[in-house]
Amino acid sequence: QVQLVESGGGLVQPGGSLRLSCAASGSFFSINVMAWYRQGPGKQRELVAGITSGAGTTYADSVKGRFTISRDNAKNTVYLQMNSLRPEDTAVYYCNAHVTPTWYSTGRDYWGQGTQVTVSS
Q: What is the separation of C-alpha 11 from the centre of its chain, rounded to a whole number of angstroms?
């Protein structure tokens, strides 16, 4: 079983910064893509940023130039550095990992429990 544990959310003023972390633990063969999603009040869950095991990245247009995703493969951890935060970034942020349990298995997605990010003055 794989567990994803997020940390780093909180309340921040507009223009401020936060750094989210998500650590994967458990027994698995490899972690492929790791990503951050968010779900704001009354909105659908959306992809914020993703990163492959080879450090290829993708971002939602709304966060390009403000957010940076990175990962430490040795620690099975993904980070999201969020700068120049705006009220519209307020959401619950979820960590996602596409994990291959064994070398002969197909991968599946795992989700963290979510961490609240509130941007308000």
A: 17
DSSP code at position 73: T
Q: Please state, in angstroms and as integers, the Cα–Cα distance from residue 31 to each residue in 8, 95, 110, following that order.
A: 22, 13, 10
Rg (CA), the chain: 14
Q: Please give the backbone phi and psi of residue 52, each rounded to the nearest 5 degrees, phi first.
A: -85, 170
* Alpha-carbon span 106 to 119, nearest angstrom: 38
- Structural tokens at position 73: 């493969």
Q: Which residues pair with 94 in a beta bridge?
A: 37
Q: Retrieve residue 95's tokens.
A: 């960590």
Query: Which candidate, 48, 121, 40, 42, places its Cα nearest to that of 78?
Result: 48
CA angle 20/74/108 to nearest 5° reads 75
C-alpha span between 93 and 57 (Å, rounded): 18
DSSP character string of 54-88: T--EEE-GGGTTTEEEEEETTTTEEEEEE-S--GG
Mean pLDDT by 10 residues, the chain (121 residues): 94 98 94 96 96 95 98 96 98 97 91 97 95
